[in-house]
TrEMBL record, chains A, B:
Keyword tags: ATP-binding, Cytoplasm, Ligase, Nucleotide-binding, Purine biosynthesis
Statement: the UniProt record of this protein carries the keyword Coiled coil: no
Protein name: Unannotated protein
GO biological process, one term: purine nucleotide biosynthetic process
The species this protein was found in: freshwater metagenome
SUPFAM superfamilies recorded: PurS-like
Length: 86, 86
């Protein structure tokens, strides 16, 4: 049965302070890696979906990505990869 | 000054149970999106680095990605995107 693999990336909006990313940036400097201008931390979801992603299912996925997978007040999502697999 | 943008993706190793991904998969089903075979949740880091990423700095970045950004016992990392910007 065919499967479709989808990746959804969720990042804080650029104007929202990212304390996790800030902490990682501080750790880079303390560990001797200089010259880091910025680090932002986000989430990614790898979905394996049975069958094809029809237009209707893609629309439903967009809705879920924008409500369940991210908090639209402070986060943006991107559906970055949609590939069918045998 | 030139900047280099790097993305590091961190995912649980395939053999490690992913309770977050499992919870999201359950939510998809409850919300009416059927046919999800699997969902895995991971992290992504967007790094903006001043100047060029020389071979030495790339090696240092690999070390940090494999120790600071991920827990190598249960997670894999991938440096997926390295692009210079003006």
């Amino acid at each position: 049965m065919s499967e479709t693999r989808v990746v959804v990336e969720v990042m804080l909006k650029p104007e929202i302070l990212d304390p996790q990313g800030r902490a990682v940036k501080g750790a880079f400097a303390r560990l001797g890696f200089e010259g880091v201008a910025d680090i932002r931390q986000g989430k990614r979801f790898e979905l394996t979906i049975e069958g094809e992603l029809t237009a209707d299912r893609m629309a439903a996925l967009e809705t879920l990505a924008g409500t369940l997978l991210c908090n639209p007040v402070i986060e943006d999502y991107r559906i970055v990869s949609v590939e069918g697999a045998a």
